[in-house]
C-alpha cells in the first residue's frame, strides 16, 4: 500500500510538471487549459501547488500579463528531461525499444539549417509521422538549458563544459571567389592573399587562418576582411556578389563552381577542417527521438562532399 501511495505521489508531481510545461510553452494559463482540455482554475491550482512543493515563485501573473520567473525558466528547461525519463522508464525496465515520439526541439546554425540539417529533419519526420519537430536556426552561441531544446548542432568547439558533446566529424573548407573578382585581382598566391579583399565569417574566417595541403604542410595567412559577418549565408552571398575571396564547405559551393559562378582559389590548399558536434543536456537517458535524429543527421552528412566522419 505504501509503495502504491509513493507511486501516486510521484505521478502527481509529474502531472504538475506536465501542466507547467504547457503553461511555459504557451505563455498563458488559458491557452494551457485549452491544450490540456481542462479549466483555467484547474491549471492555476496546479501551478500554485507546484510552487508550494518547490518553495519558489515560478510565474508572475496579473490580469494583463504573464511571464516566467528566472526559477520558472530554469524549471521549464529541466522539466522536459524529467518527464521524458519517466515516460521511457517502462521501456527500459521491460527491455522494449522506445519509439521516437513527442516533440523534438533542435537548435542549429542557419547556413547548415537551410541545407542538410533540414533534410535530416524531414527524413526523420517521414520515417516517424507521429513525431513533431521544432527547428530553431541561429548563428549565435545558445544557452541550451534555458532554451528547452534537446540538442544543439554546433560548428566548431563547444565551450560549455556542462554539456554532453558528440563529435560527428569535420567539414573541409575551400577558398572561392567569382571569376569577375579574379579577373580584377589577377593571379592569387599565398604571398598575395593578405593584400586581397576577403569576406570574413566571424569567428572562423578572420585575422590569421591556417591553410593545409594534401602533403600535410601548413601555412598561417593573415586575411584582410573589409566585410565581416557572423552569418554563413550572408558571407556566401557577399562572395557571390564579388565582394571578396571567401571560404565555404564543398557541399555548399559545389553547384556554383560547376555552373561557373565561382572558382576555387589556391586549389591545392584547404582551410583547416572545422568540427561538427551535437551538444546535449547532461543526463544518461536520451529520448528515442534524439537518438533517431542524430542517426538521420549522420546519414545526411556522410553523403556530403568534403565531410570527414569521426
From TrEMBL:
GO MF: DNA binding
Residue ranges constituting the HTH lysR-type domain according to the UniProt record: 12-69
Endpoints of the signal sequence: none
CDD domains in the record: PBP2_CrgA_like (cd08422)
Domain of life: Bacteria
Pfam families according to UniProt: HTH_1, LysR_substrate
Family classification: Belongs to the LysR transcriptional regulatory family.
PANTHER family assigned: HTH-TYPE TRANSCRIPTIONAL REGULATOR, TRANSCRIPTIONAL REGULATORY PROTEIN
Name of the protein in its database record: DNA-binding transcriptional LysR family regulator
Organism of this sequence: Variovorax soli
Amino acid at each position: 500500500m505504501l509503495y502504491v501511495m509513493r507511486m501516486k505521489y510521484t505521478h502527481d508531481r509529474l502531472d504538475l510538471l506536465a501542466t507547467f510545461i504547457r503553461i511555459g510553452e504557451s505563455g498563458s494559463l488559458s491557452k494551457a487549459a485549452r491544450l490540456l482540455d481542462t479549466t483555467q482554475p484547474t491549471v492555476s491550482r496546479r501551478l500554485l501547488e507546484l510552487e508550494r512543493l518547490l518553495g519558489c515563485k515560478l510565474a508572475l501573473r496579473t490580469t494583463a500579463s504573464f511571464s516566467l520567473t528566472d526559477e520558472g525558466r530554469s524549471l521549464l528547461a529541466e522539466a522536459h528531461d524529467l518527464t521524458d525519463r519517466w515516460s521511457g522508464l517502462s521501456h527500459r525496465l521491460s527491455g522494449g525499444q522506445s519509439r521516437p515520439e513527442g516533440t523534438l526541439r533542435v537548435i542549429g546554425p542557419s547556413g547548415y539549417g537551410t541545407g542538410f540539417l533540414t533534410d535530416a529533419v524531414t527524413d526523420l519526420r517521414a520515417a516517424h509521422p507521429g513525431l513533431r519537430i521544432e527547428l530553431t536556426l541561429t548563428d549565435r552561441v545558445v544557452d541550451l538549458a534555458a532554451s528547452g531544446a534537446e540538442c544543439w548542432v554546433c560548428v566548431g568547439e563547444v565551450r560549455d563544459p556542462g554539456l554532453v558533446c558528440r563529435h560527428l566529424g569535420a567539414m573541409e573548407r575551400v577558398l572561392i571567389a567569382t571569376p569577375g573578382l579574379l579577373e580584377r585581382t589577377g593571379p592569387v598566391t599565398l604571398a598575395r592573399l593578405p593584400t586581397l579583399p576577403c569576406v570574413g565569417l566571424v569567428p572562423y574566417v578572420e585575422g590569421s587562418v591556417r591553410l593545409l595541403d594534401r602533403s600535410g604542410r601548413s601555412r598561417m595567412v593573415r586575411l584582410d576582411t573589409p566585410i565581416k559577418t557572423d552569418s554563413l549565408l550572408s558571407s556566401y552571398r557577399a562572395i557571390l556578389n564579388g565582394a571578396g575571396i571567401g571560404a565555404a564547405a564543398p557541399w555548399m559551393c559545389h553547384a556554383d563552381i560547376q555552373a561557373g559562378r565561382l572558382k576555387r582559389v589556391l586549389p591545392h590548399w584547404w582551410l583547416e577542417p572545422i568540427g561538427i558536434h551535437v551538444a546535449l543536456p547532461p543526463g544518461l537517458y536520451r529520448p528515442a527521438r534524439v537518438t533517431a535524429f542524430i542517426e538521420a543527421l549522420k546519414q545526411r552528412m556522410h553523403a556530403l562532399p568534403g565531410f570527414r566522419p569521426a
